[in-house]
Amino acid sequence: MASESNQPGSPSTTPENGETKPKIAMITGITGQDGSYLTEFLLNKGYEVHGLIRRSSNFNTQRINHIYIDPHNAHKARMKLHYADLSDASSLRRWLDTINPDEVYNLAAQSHVAVSFEVPDYTADVVATGVVRLLEAVRSHIAATGRSHIKYYQAGSSEMFGSTPPPQSETTPFHPRSPYAASKCAAHWYTVNYREAYGMFACNGILFNHESPRRGENFVTRKITRAVGRIKVGLQSKLFLGNLQASRDWGFAGDYVEAMWMMLQQEKPDDYVVATEESHTVEEFLEAAFGIVGMNWKDHVVIDKRYFRPAEVDNLKGDSSKARKVLGWKPKVGFEQLVKMMVDEDVDLAKREKVLVDAGYIDSQQQP
Ligand code: NDP
Ligand code: GDR
Fold this sequence. Notes:
Belongs to the NAD(P)-dependent epimerase/dehydratase family. GDP-mannose 4,6-dehydratase subfamily. Helix 1 (about 35-45) crosses helix 7 and helix 2 runs parallel beside helix 4 (about 120-145). The protein has 10 helices and 15 strands. The protein has a domain at about 25-215 and about 250-280 and about 315-335: Rossmann fold, CATH 3.40.50. The chain is of the alpha/beta class. The longest helix has 26 residues, at about 120-145. The model is unreliable at about 1-10 (pLDDT under 50). Bound molecules: NADPH dihydro-nicotinamide-adenine-dinucleotide phosphate and guanosine-5'-diphosphate-rhamnose (GDR). The site of guanosine-5'-diphosphate-rhamnose has 22 residues, from helix 3 and helix 6.
């Protein structure tokens, strides 16, 4: 179980020279869906959070702008952002040495499965080799500083199970079906290897799909709920999709980041499957999402071959009994509640978009 001082609600501190200091977390991928929820979660627990962000030609901090405080307001700003990249080993080691974190969460990835078929080499560089770069940076930082208490979380994925039939648990063999999934398998084994070879506190979270109103708009759940909102207010009429028969075990991202943290509060490092243990097809998601606003998905969905993948993962449904027993974790948000949360937010978003379209500020044909 999580140690007493780290139970929800109690401050997360680390003793130093007789004084207690806030725990320090370093997060890669802080600008992504999970990074934003994890940051909120850790700030609520009293952590100081350092996020590594990559340079982009547009601002990429939309998901964390609401918690950003200008660093000139130093005593209030507990989230700090630094430029780095998983493809740049020197930047990872430099920030570890500067930040001296207690916990490192590696969430950064080229995380789109279909896109990984288009950019396989880049995907492997970030999703697989990026992990060994970060693990090696942590290992060498520990060797140089003696800070052996650092804990490392690796964002593993149910995609690693690929075509192995459900239910999938920690002991289920991997059979990856995309460059993304194969790279995540490498990342998984790098993490196990650094734990066994160097005694590092390194955990793999094998997380099944988790969604939210902050989900990227080209993942199927958000693509659907965005379309529901826009169709409802008259900004769109068709929704182009691929395979509707794939089944996924969909949970809420806010619940899943808690499991990441719980893994790092254990006495021993280990690997855990995190899942709702309930599976639905894409078609069932459509049915639920369109149903909430009283529409029929069949009136709007058009199948487009371009969204089929060269190899598909048909059926994912997790067995998370280990996480439930050892960590005491369980999901709070169920399937229907998740779909409703996403549809409600996207209907509101579409209404705001409609105001801009009606005022002539944006083009109604411009789909997300
Ligand atoms: P997102 O795609 O929303 O976020 C990915 C993050 O990684 C972004 O912050 C992105 O930055 C950053 N990133 C991408 N490439 C690099 C790079 N080269 N160097 C540094 N940062 C980079 O993913 P999620 O939040 O949904 O997922 C978080 C992690 O969990 C990922 O590793 C994903 O593969 C894994 N995962 C996700 C699941 C899910 O259902 N959401 C399930 C299982 C695993 P930018 O904002 O600039 O693009
Ligand atoms: P997934 O999520 O591949 O499971 O990876 P995604 O939402 O992209 O696909 C889920 C299923 O829906 C089918 N599908 C479509 N998918 C997309 N994106 N767009 C479409 O138009 C469409 N039509 C049908 C797909 O074929 C697939 O079967 C996510 C990512 O977050 C990974 O990073 C993570 O590791 C896994 O979840 C667990």
